[in-house]
Amino acid sequence: MAQRKPNIIVTGTPGTGKTSHAQQIAEQMPDLKYYPINDVAKARDCIVGYDEERQSSIVDEEKLLDAIEEELEAGGLVIDWHVCDIFPERLIDLVLVLRTSTNLLYDRYVERKYPENKRDENMDAEIMQIILDEARDSYDENIVIELQSDTIEDLESNVERVVEWRKHWDSNNEDK
């Protein structure tokens, strides 16, 4: 049986650079697939509504997990989503929680023209490290990595770090 490839979650408050990181990781490791959950949820008919106040789709997480379970079990996914705690721990090998300084994050929200309530909610989530805490509560502490994501240099350094992690992961999982 061929070795299963790792599943990596790239998560964080909106605006922290999840998509850029996940795409770069997949680009550096072409045997892994960039897996944007928002797109997957739409394609698999897992959107059950729209939250006007948050200006975001509402995903049926149970339906989503059922729809992607086989792909998760096969491995090789770089999962891009703002939520991480719904994925079964047994199928996740690394959780990257991106953090951005609040002044930069605020500027990104203004640039994206987020309404004040959405901007405030996301700022509060970052300040209170909601996503980091959810990751730490849901996965083994050894696979949850907090990464600073303020600059292009941070992005490059973070991706290099994941590439190195992958080399170690491969050598530790040769027999699986």
From TrEMBL:
<dbReference type="Pfam" id="PF13238">
    <property type="entry name" value="AAA_18"/>
</dbReference>
<protein>
    <recommendedName>
        <fullName>Adenylate kinase isoenzyme 6 homolog</fullName>
        <ecNumber>2.7.4.3</ecNumber>
    </recommendedName>
</protein>
<feature type="region of interest" description="LID">
    <location>
        <begin position="111"/>
        <end position="121"/>
    </location>
</feature>
<keyword id="KW-0963">Cytoplasm</keyword>
<dbReference type="GO" id="GO:0004017">
    <property type="term" value="F:AMP kinase activity"/>
</dbReference>
<feature type="region of interest" description="NMPbind">
    <location>
        <begin position="36"/>
        <end position="59"/>
    </location>
</feature>
<keyword id="KW-0698">rRNA processing</keyword>
<dbReference type="GO" id="GO:0042274">
    <property type="term" value="P:ribosomal small subunit biogenesis"/>
</dbReference>
<feature type="binding site">
    <location>
        <position position="18"/>
    </location>
    <ligand>
        <name>ATP</name>
    </ligand>
</feature>
<dbReference type="InterPro" id="IPR027417">
    <property type="entry name" value="P-loop_NTPase"/>
</dbReference>
<keyword id="KW-0418">Kinase</keyword>
<dbReference type="GO" id="GO:0016887">
    <property type="term" value="F:ATP hydrolysis activity"/>
</dbReference>
<comment type="similarity">
    <text>Belongs to the adenylate kinase family. AK6 subfamily.</text>
</comment>
<feature type="binding site">
    <location>
        <position position="19"/>
    </location>
    <ligand>
        <name>ATP</name>
    </ligand>
</feature>
<keyword id="KW-0539">Nucleus</keyword>
<dbReference type="GO" id="GO:0005634">
    <property type="term" value="C:nucleus"/>
</dbReference>
<keyword id="KW-0547">Nucleotide-binding</keyword>
<comment type="function">
    <text>Broad-specificity nucleoside monophosphate (NMP) kinase that catalyzes the reversible transfer of the terminal phosphate group between nucleoside triphosphates and monophosphates. Has also ATPase activity. Involved in the late cytoplasmic maturation steps of the 40S ribosomal particles, specifically 18S rRNA maturation. While NMP activity is not required for ribosome maturation, ATPase activity is. Associates transiently with small ribosomal subunit protein uS11. ATP hydrolysis breaks the interaction with uS11.</text>
</comment>
<dbReference type="GO" id="GO:0005737">
    <property type="term" value="C:cytoplasm"/>
</dbReference>
<feature type="binding site">
    <location>
        <position position="112"/>
    </location>
    <ligand>
        <name>ATP</name>
    </ligand>
</feature>
<feature type="binding site">
    <location>
        <position position="15"/>
    </location>
    <ligand>
        <name>ATP</name>
    </ligand>
</feature>
<feature type="binding site">
    <location>
        <position position="20"/>
    </location>
    <ligand>
        <name>ATP</name>
    </ligand>
</feature>
<dbReference type="GO" id="GO:0005524">
    <property type="term" value="F:ATP binding"/>
</dbReference>
<keyword id="KW-0808">Transferase</keyword>
<keyword id="KW-0067">ATP-binding</keyword>
<dbReference type="GO" id="GO:0006364">
    <property type="term" value="P:rRNA processing"/>
</dbReference>
<comment type="subunit">
    <text>Interacts with small ribosomal subunit protein uS11. Not a structural component of 43S pre-ribosomes, but transiently interacts with them by binding to uS11.</text>
</comment>
<dbReference type="InterPro" id="IPR020618">
    <property type="entry name" value="Adenyl_kinase_AK6"/>
</dbReference>
<keyword id="KW-0690">Ribosome biogenesis</keyword>
<feature type="binding site">
    <location>
        <position position="17"/>
    </location>
    <ligand>
        <name>ATP</name>
    </ligand>
</feature>
